[in-house]
Every structure is written in C-alpha cells, then in structure tokens.
Specification:
The complex is a heterodimer of chains A (about 375) and B (about 210).
Chain A: H1 2-17, E1 21-35, E2 52-65, E3 68-77, E4 80-93, E5 96-104, E6 151-162, E7 168-176, H2 187-190, E8 201-209, E9 213-223, E10 231-243, E11 246-258, E12 274-287, E13 292-305, E14 317-330, E15 335-347, E16 354-364
Antiparallel strand pairs in A: 1-2, 1-16, 2-3, 3-4, 4-5, 5-6, 6-7, 7-8, 8-9, 9-10, 10-11, 11-12, 12-13, 13-14, 14-15, 15-16
Chain B: H1 2-11, H2 16-23, H3 30-33, H4 40-53, H5 60-73, H6 122-139, H7 145-151, H8 155-166, H9 175-189
The chains are: A mainly beta (about 375), B mainly alpha (about 210).
C-alpha cells in the first residue's frame, strides 16, 4: 500500500504546485449494528468490536484544463486501504468522452452513490451489499449481486445524447479486467490489480433521464476463473423519480454464474452447472424537514440453483428479504446521523428471523 | 400515506418562510439569525454580504425577498432607536452575536459604505429561480447539497464541476440544463448577467 500512498501524495503535491484546480472531498463513517437473537451472525470489524465498522475516503479531482481531469479516491475499511477510483478523463464532446484507469464498474445506479455520504440508510441495498449483510459469507449467500463499490481496471467511453430540451440518453461502455474467483465469484480477489485470466470483461449502462425521473439498464459479463472457462453475466434495471418531498428509487439485478462441473461436494447431483442470483430494492426517501429524511426500503436477494460445496444453504432456492425504516438526520453541512430498524426474514434456509438496529455517524466535506 | 405526502408537497406553494429556512437557516440557527434587529437597507446589505459568501445558495433576488421578510414578516427591526454598530464586522457568517434580544449591542452591521445592491429585473429573477431549482434537483440526486454549496466557491471551478458532472451517466443534466446552470452561476458570481438563451463557453483556463 505504501507505494500507492506515495503516488497519491506525489500527484496531489505536484498538481498543487503547478497551479491546477484541485478539488478535495472526503468522508468518514462509523457504523454500529445490533442483531437480535441467540448467536447473531458476525461481520468483520476494523475496530475489533463486533458489529462496529468504519469507512473513510479521500478524493482528489485535478482539473488541468482542455477537458482533461484526473481523479483519485482512496478509501479504507474492512479490506484495508484501497484505490476506489484512479482515472484520467478526457472530455471530447458531450456524446463521446473517454476515461481510463481504476474505475467504478457501471452496473446499477447505487454504484454511483456508494459513498456513505451519498445514501440515506446506514446499510447498502442487498444487491450491492458486502460484509454488512447478515449471512454474507461464501458458505451462505456470498454477498450481493455486485457488491459496491465494484472497482476494476479498464477503459470506458461515455457520453450524453440530447433528446429534446429536458430529456437525455446517457451511456457508458467499459472494457475491464473483470471479476475473479473459483466456482463462484470472490470479490476480494476481484480487486487485485492483475487479472487472473486472459479474457477481458465488458460492462455498459444506459440511462434515459428527464427532469425528475430516470430509467436505465446496465450489465456486465466476463470469464472469472483462471482457465477462462467459467462465466458470469449480470443485468439490471433501475428507476428514479422525485415527487415533491418524496424520492423514489428502485433497482432489480440478476447474475448468472457458471459452476465448476468438475468440483466435488455438491449436495445434489449437478445437472445445470450454473446458478442465478436475483436481487432488488425499492426505496422511498421522504424529506419531512429540511434536516430530517424518513426512509422506507424493501429489498431482497434470492439464489436459485445448486448450493456450493460445503454451503450452509441446503436447497436450490434460498432467499433473504429485508424491510427497513430509517432516519437520516443532517446536523449541518458536514455531519449527519443515520439510524434504522431492519427486519430480516429468510426463505429456503434454516437461518432464523432477525431484528437489526443500526446507527451511523457520517462526516463528509 | 405516501400518496398523501406527495400530493401535499406538490400542491404546497413555495413560501417566503420556506425560502428563509432554505437559505438563512441552512447555516445559521433561528436563535442567532432572529436576534438581529436591522432596518431593511441594513438587512439588504447584510444578506448581500452573505450571498457573496454563498453565491450558489442565495440568489440576488433572495436578498430582496429575504430582507423584506425579515422586516415585514419576522419584524426583526430596531425596537425604539436605530441600532448602533459597536464593532466592524469581519466575519458576518460566524459572528452574529447579540448581547440580548431586546437591546442589541455588538451587532455586526454591514459596512455602511457598502452600496445597496440593485434589485434584479424580471429576467434575472426568473433565471435565478430556474437555476437554483435545477441545482437543487439535479445535484441532490447523488449528493447532499451541502457538498455542492461548499465546493462551488469560484466561477471557474463551478463551471468546470458542473460540466464534468453533467457527463456522469444518469446525472439528468441535459445540455439545456447546463446552459441555464452556467448562466445562473455567472449571474451569481459576476455582473453583468448573461442571458440564459445564449450559449456560454467553458471557463477552463487556456493552459
């Protein structure tokens, strides 16, 4: 990690010394969750306190003129220090621009808002969840569909096509390294900078936007094992609307992932060597006061297909649903509090119902 | 319940009180801002100075609407005799301190030699209203507005950021929106006002 920090620092110092326009932004989030019942599932904690996590991030955008800018965002949390974003961007025309480097994979709308200062609940929606979800381990649901932030190396073209005065069609098409793993994805390994195989992946997102609404679709596909023989494909749709004090967001994603037919230990005879994961969320943010937002969210994740060898899932159809009521309270421009209650129910598994309460302190500038 | 909230919020007309909450109470508490007693010209000067500190948040038209609301709505005017400034203001945003509500001493009045701001014309008011509303709805799709107001502190930076953001997939900022936002930012940061109908170039320095 030290060489990366040196590079980041050098970039910042050199650009400041050259008089380029430098924009800084950062965030820090401290989150605690309490899970009901006996033997509650644990999650990783960088503080050594079960249920407590923190994330911090620092972003530098350097605008050097002529449509060229550089962005570097480093973040730290359960996975240590990571480079969430690190790319150069060239604006050519509104309909054609280029970005290359360490990118956020353009799958889903939540990916754009994955920083804790940019979403109103203490937890991420299940399709994008990482270690903050219950039963997140490989022996259970193995995280969401595409845990956010999905970070990868690559190049992408993006732009916006005007369709009248108030409507536009935005797009992003990326060529990236792709996700990695053996017999299902391994998201920690997927963030390694060097590809584990010889097949690049593709990703794309297209969004039709109006004044207070948008609809979009996105997807990505590639080989994920070292032999280029196992594939994954993710597709999703998204919707956004603002009606007065109410903001509505909804997304649905699905991932088909090839299973290794040569592996042993499956609980049943393997007939279809793949499984399907589907996830969704629908959320309403109601701004009750200029400082207070009430959030209602329903989300879920379902897995169809052969459980992995040694999995705690014992059926070919298992799922989790969550209902959330949350409050987002802004103390001032830089400080906000989040709190929620979540009801977790499981189907097709032996996991018991859980009540979860979360509180989070979020600092951002 | 959700439908009722939506209906009520869509039907509710924008009130001056709401404007006061959005603009003044964004940074100050009611306790601080409503302990000040000034005449209307003094309020105008004071709010204009606040506007220059937060040009993306407070429009030129807001200066007049808010100063009238302070005087006629909230009645925040001197009780008996004209207020006398004891200290020259050096930090108006942070130092709105009064000894007590009825008899203000230590009021950080705007510098008397500051010219009274000119009232914007109808076109300027319309542009400001449209630009501010656009800024709120588009930027808040992904960001808290505090981040937006905090970052857009110079014209050049604001124009660059808005253009870069407009190209983010799903930002909802169309080319027409961009034109209005650029005209709005120029009108807030500099005079004279540039018409929203005219195309506005980038502010990138030729380097």
């Amino acid at each position: 990690m030290t060489p990366r920090l040196v590079v980041l620092t050098s970039l910042l110092v050199s650009t400041v010394s050259h008089g380029a326009d430098v924009i800084l932004a950062g965030s820090a989030s401290l989150d605690y969750r309490l899970v009901s019942g006996a033997a509650p599932p644990t999650n990783p904690s960088p503080l050594g306190i079960n249920g407590m996590t923190f994330e911090l991030a620092q972003k530098v955008v350097v605008d050097v003129g002529h449509g060229v800018s550089f962005t570097v965002k480093a973040c730290g949390g359960c996975h240590g220090l990571e480079v969430d974003q690190g790319f150069g961007e060239l604006h050519v025309r509104r309909f054609f621009n280029v970005r290359a480097g360490r990118l956020n994979v353009p799958v889903g709308e939540f990916t754009v808002r994955h920083d804790p200062t940019n979403f109103s609940t203490p937890s991420k929606p299940l399709p994008f969840a990482m270690g903050d979800m219950l039963q997140y381990g490989r022996s259970a649901f193995n995280l969401g569909i595409v845990p956010a932030p999905a970070v990868d190396n690559g190049v992408e073209v993006f732009g916006s096509l005007g369709l009248g005065k108030r409507v536009s069609l935005d797009y992003t098409v990326s060529l990236i390294k792709g996700l990695a793993g053996d017999n299902d994805l391994d998201f920690a390994r997927s963030r390694v900078w060097v590809d584990n195989n010889r097949t690049p992946a593709v990703a794309a997102r297209v969004v039709l936007t109006g004044p207070d609404w948008s609809f979009g679709a996105s997807g990505t596909a590639g080989a994920y094992d070292a032999k280029d023989s196992l594939w994954y494909a993710i597709a999703g749709v998204e919707a956004y609307a603002r009606l007065g004090i109410v903001t509505l967001r909804a997304e649905a994603l699905a991932r088909r992932t090839d299973l290794d037919a040569t592996a042993t230990g499956y609980p049943f005879q393997l007939i279809d060597a793949w499984f399907l994961k589907a996830g969704w969320y629908a959320q309403a943010d109601v701004q009750l006061h200029r400082l207070v937002t009430l959030v209602l969210r329903s989300d879920g994740l379902h897995r169809f297909g052969m459980p992995l060898p040694d999995s705690e899932l014992t059926t070919a159809s298992a799922g989790v649903q969550r209902q959330t009521v949350a409050a987002f309270v802004r103390a001032n421009d830089f400080v906000a509090f989040k709190a929620d209650y979540e009801l977790w129910t499981f189907t097709g598994t032996t996991f018991p119902l859980r009540h979860v309460g979360r509180v989070a302190l979020v600092l951002g500038y | 319940m959700l439908a009722l909230l939506v209906t009520l919020s869509l039907a509710a007309p924008p009130s001056t009180r709401l404007l006061y909450e959005q603009k003044c109470l964004y940074c100050h508490s009611e306790e601080v801002s409503e302990r000040v007693r000034l005449t209307e010209p003094q309020w105008r000067r004071l709010i204009e100075q606040m506007r220059q500190r937060a040009p993306v948040l407070i429009t030129r038209g807001d200066v007049f609407t808010l100063s009238r609301y302070m005087v006629n709505g909230l009645k925040l005017v001197p009780a008996q005799k004209p207020v006398v400034a004891v200290t020259k203001p050096d930090s108006l945003g942070a130092d709105l301190r009064l000894a007590d509500a009825g008899v203000p001493r230590d009021v950080p009045l705007p510098t008397p030699i500051d010219p009274l701001p000119e009232e914007p014309n109808a076109d300027e008011l319309a542009l400001a209203e449209e630009g501010f509303a656009l800024m709120q709805t588009r930027c808040s799709r992904c960001h808290t507005l505090g981040r937006v107001y905090g970052k857009l502190d110079t014209l050049e930076r604001s124009l660059n950021v808005i253009e870069r953001m407009s190209l983010k997939t799903g930002s909802g900022i169309t080319e027409d929106d961009l034109r209005v936002l650029e005209a709005y930012l120029r009108s807030q940061f500099e005079r004279p006002l540039q018409s929203a109908a005219e195309p506005v170039g980038r502010a990138t320095s030729p380097r």
